Structure to design on (474 residues):
């Protein structure tokens, strides 16, 4: 009897909960609302109800627009009222979140999110999250949770594997107990079952055990990284008018040529290429030049990036990466030369037998696109016939068309006058092709004006870093 009553109660409650959403979303609600408002008008007046409806609309709009703001999007609202004949009705809101023009910070955040780790072995349940950001009085911070997420996924995966192994072991030992005639075999089986149960307890209870020891042991916080000002060399803006900054028609006096010649020996690069790279930076060969992002000197080096360039036998110089030292021509040139090792490896790997102008274009590409982006462009060229002008241009087009979901390319198109990208059917192609054309033209000017026939050094010499005076005064 009690069971039958409980069964009826459950059916009634389930029917109510099923009926409510169906009724609420049905057209019947509109008629019900109209009747209710007609009756209400008799008692309180329609003016008061209209005011209430306006407040409902306002609150609903604010609530929905908050969702757009959380997604860093703009809120577009269209309000329609189902008229009751009394001048008001049930509000019907059409709210759309439209993408806003990304800022430089948003572009950087999107770029980091696009660089999520790709594991060679897939771990079930592991999906790396996007990079989050927050801003307070001390600055803007990015939160990168990839390492905690990996540890968490490995823990869960390990628990699953251990559980499967333990269950299989218990089943096997259970069969041994059933089939054995007793004695030591049966005792050993019971012992192994007990061991499997203890192992399961430890595995599943490890979280509680660690938490009781120290709660911090189970808290894997996201990596908090303070965002510095944007590096100028990674700025996607490439102005045709800026070609004089990359390769001036009249080269500055050769006051520092001897420095370029000496430190070029440290990496085996043609010293004229080293000078060309220095001229391509924003310093204009001013050793004391410091930009807004804190990059210093000829080669625009920042103190926190500097130590990583001194490796192996030169690691002893890493502690000298101070603002004061980076403003000295010798030390800055030494770091600038070491910076070229990665680019030299890229050229030797992907464009060793290419035209010298194309090889020099790669050096400029690293300045404007970064080593990682340039490597992707070179990989495309390699997969499509080699290091040729057309392949590198096409690789640049594809890279910038797709980079950051096309956000940088869209920003580039919006930054310049419409005529700048007018010739392109797909406007997102404009950035990559313009970048390549500009850097390739600068490289060809470098070849012509400085007589560069190879990016590699044509003579051997001693690197100052291998002497007793690694940074001679200028």
């Amino acid at each position: 009897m009690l069971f039958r009553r409980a069964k009826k109660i459950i059916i009634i409650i389930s029917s109510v909960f099923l009926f409510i959403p169906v009724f609420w979303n049905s057209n019947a609600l509109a008629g019900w609302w109209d009747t209710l408002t007609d009756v209400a008008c008799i008692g309180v007046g329609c003016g008061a109800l209209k005011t209430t409806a306006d407040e409902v609309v306002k609150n609903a709009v604010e609530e929905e627009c908050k969702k757009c703001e959380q997604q860093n999007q703009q809120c577009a609202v269209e309000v329609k009222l189902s008229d009751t004949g009394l001048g008001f009705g049930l509000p019907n809101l059409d709210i759309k979140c439209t993408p806003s023009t990304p800022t430089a910070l948003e572009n950087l955040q999107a770029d980091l999110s696009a660089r999520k780790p790709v594991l060679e072995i897939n771990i079930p349940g592991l999906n790396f999250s996007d990079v989050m950001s927050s801003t307070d009085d001390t600055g803007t911070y990015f939160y990168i949770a990839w390492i905690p997420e990996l540890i968490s996924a490995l823990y869960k995966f390990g628990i699953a594997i251990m559980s499967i192994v333990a269950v299989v072991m218990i089943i096997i030992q259970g069969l041994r107990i059933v089939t054995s005639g007793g004695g030591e075999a049966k005792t050993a089986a019971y012992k192994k079952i007990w061991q499997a149960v203890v192992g399961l307890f430890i595995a599943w209870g490890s979280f509680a055990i660690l938490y009781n020891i120290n709660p911090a042991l189970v808290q894997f916080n996201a990596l908090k990284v303070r965002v510095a000002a944007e590096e100028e060399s990674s700025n996607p803006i490439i102005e045709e008018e800026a070609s004089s900054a990359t390769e001036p028609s009249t080269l500055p006096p050769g006051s520092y040529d001897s420095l370029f010649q000496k430190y070029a020996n440290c990496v085996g690069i043609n010293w004229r290429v080293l000078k060309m790279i220095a001229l391509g930076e924003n310093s204009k060969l001013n050793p004391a030049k410091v930009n807004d992002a804190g990059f210093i000197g000829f080669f625009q080096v920042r103190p926190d990036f500097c130590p990583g360039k001194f490796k192996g036998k030169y690691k002893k110089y890493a502690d000298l990466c101070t603002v004061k030292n980076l403003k000295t021509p010798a030390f800055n040139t030494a770091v600038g030369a070491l910076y070229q090792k990665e680019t030299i490896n890229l050229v030797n790997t992907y464009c060793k037998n290419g035209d010298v102008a194309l090889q020099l274009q790669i050096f400029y590409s690293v300045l404007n696109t970064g080593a990682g982006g340039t490597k992707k462009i070179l990989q495309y060229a390699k997969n499509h016939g080699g290091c040729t002008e057309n392949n590198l241009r096409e690789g640049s087009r594809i890279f910038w068309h797709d980079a950051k979901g096309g956000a940088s390319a869209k920003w580039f198109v919006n930054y310049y006058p419409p005529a700048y990208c007018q010739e392109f059917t797909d406007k997102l192609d404009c950035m990559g092709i313009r970048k390549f054309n500009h850097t390739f033209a600068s490289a060809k000017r470098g070849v012509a004006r400085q007589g560069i026939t190879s990016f590699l050094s044509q003579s051997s010499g001693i690197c100052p870093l291998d002497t007793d005076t690694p940074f001679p005064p200028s």
About this structure: The beta strands are 73-83, 89-99, 132-136, 139-144, 223-226.
